[in-house]
Amino acid sequence: MERTFLKVHGSGNTFYLYNTDNENEFNWVELTKWLCQKDNHKGADGLLLVLPSESADAKMRVINADGSEASMCGNGLRCVARFVCENIGKDEAIIETMKADLFVKKETPLFEDIPTYAVEISPVLFSLSSLPMVYGEQTEIRHQVIPEFSSTIPYTAVSVPNPHLIGIVEQEDIENRTHQQNLAQFLNSENEYCLDGVNVSYVYPMKNDTIFVRTFERGVGFTNACGTAMTASALVSRLNGFVEYDVITVFNPGGFVRCEVKILEDEYKLTLIGNATVTASYILDIMDNEFKIVSFDETEEQGQYEKCLEIVKKETASFAS
Fold first, then answer.
1. Which residues are substrate-binding (predicted)?
2. Which positions are annotated as active-site residues?
3. Is the Cβ–Cβ distance between 263 and 22 less than 8 Å?
4. Confidence of residue 219 (pLDDT cuts 50, 70, 90)
């Protein structure tokens, strides 16, 4: 049977997107693993499923490249937001995710005519049990040097709702990915700290309103961008005084976004704003666990996004590779 899939990305975080009324239509794990193979049209970071919802305009599920399921994905949510808003003919919507129903809306483009959407990132929890993570008798880790991880880098553990370990680093730790990769691989294998793994991001403060974030994503590896990681990194940077403004520009290897951080006592309102780009439409033939690409048509949207990337590369030339 032939089905149509879109290939989309937010900040270079690439997905296939599929709209269906049947949540059990296919074996999503096997299909996603096949779609995301790097030698299969350059692969992808995961599959976004758009499904009916009883509580919102639509429901989103996120299947990672390794077949595991993420509770949320900020970059993917922007792509789903665009798909749903265009389908219902509105500029805003509510999308059901695993942990919360989230508000999304069309935004003024961040660059030229690139389709741009703002999405709510929630809930925000600092309790180690929410990740889950275990470190001695502590209930939280906030901007703390953990000797078992590094003798110099302060880390913060936070779930939004995906689990994140955020390290604020010097430029040398961004330019050389070895330490981050070794730590992330350790924490995403059998270990005593993060039994279900964790997304590990290193954050380099560039200016009082700008940071650079590189993320090793659980179930994916190093990715061009991770939406919840960028938002969590903006929050951690704001809480610890590395940025001074509520609207923060976040550069990443795949582009840039803006994160709005509003702090009200112990409550946080986080918004992620960035591109929602459709690069191609694919026709797939799916029969049992046999998959075949029948045809595909590329759009012109990626060419526009490449212009944006040229600006990003100039700003981050020494450490974005």
1. 13, 64, 74-75, 162, 199, 217-218, 227-228
2. 73, 226
3. no
4. confident
